[in-house]
From TrEMBL:
SUPFAM superfamilies: DNA helicase RuvA subunit, C-terminal domain, Nucleic acid-binding proteins, RuvA domain 2-like. The gene is ruvA. InterPro entries: DNA_helicase_Holl-junc_RuvA_I, Hlx-hairpin-Hlx_DNA-bd_motif, NA-bd_OB-fold, RuvA, RuvA_2-like, RuvA_C, RuvA_C_sf. Belongs to the RuvA family. This is Holliday junction branch migration complex subunit RuvA. GO terms for molecular function: ATP binding; four-way junction DNA binding; four-way junction helicase activity. Has three domains with a flexible linker between the domains II and III and assumes an 'L' shape. Domain III is highly mobile and contacts RuvB. The keyword S-adenosyl-L-methionine does not apply.
Length: 204
């Protein structure tokens, strides 16, 4: 099984990157391909090697933590690889793990592909299996949960820097922010904002 790949991004799509590893191109599906592609030069992508009867697929992540959480998620009944990718695209590992510990169904059901029943199964199946995942500490029986990234100007500032590194101009980014800011909610991550902005930029 493939555990990680190290190479350069040869091609980029909305759902995957093609990673050139010593002349071999690997198609790797990612929660946010644009975050991986913005790294210049060689990049390390942590892999989940998924084998089905009709396909062999590679799912890739920027961190070990994402890789581990993805594997936990696909063990939950009703969550396949596509939905698990959507969860990681919609929230950081810290946010997802915190929501599961807190049984925060409101947050979980806002993640792509997660309905109320699936969110309840996530809490039931994973609450006692996430040790070492997410920056969540427990003191005096209470959960100390990290503050989520604000979906406001501060998050957009970081996302904007990443988009500028991809070659987009200030005028283009000002225009796209006007389009997406009204739908930007509390708790959305920088990666989510980048992905939404890039979809708008591609659409023109």
């Amino acid at each position: 099984m493939i555990d990680f790949l190290r190479g350069t991004v040869a091609h980029l799509e909305n759902e995957y990157v093609v990673l050139d590893v010593q002349g071999v191109g690997y198609r790797v599906f990612c929660p946010n391909p644009f975050a991986i592609a913005k790294t210049e030069g060689s990049v390390t992508v942590y892999i989940h090697h998924h084998v089905r009867e009709d396909a062999i697929l590679l799912f890739g992540f920027a961190t070990r933590e994402e890789q581990k959480l993805f594997r936990k998620l696909i063990d939950v009944s009703g969550i396949g690889p596509k939905v698990a990718l959507g969860v990681l695209a919609g929230g950081t590992p810290d946010q997802v793990v915190s929501a599961i510990y807190q049984e925060n169904l409101t947050f979980l059901t806002k993640l792509p592909g997660i309905g109320k029943k699936t969110a309840q199964r996530m809490v039931l199946d994973l609450k006692d299996k996430l040790d070492g995942l997410g920056n969540v500490t427990i003191a005096s029986g209470l959960f100390a949960v990290p503050e989520p990234v604000q979906g406001d100007g501060s998050a957009w500032s970081e996302a904007r820097e990443g988009l500028q590194a991809l070659g987009y101009t200030d005028a283009e980014l000002d225009h796209v922010w006007q389009k997406i800011k009204e739908d930007t909610a509390f708790g959305e991550t920088v990666d989510v904002l980048m992905k939404r902005a890039l979809k708008q930029l591609y659409a023109g």
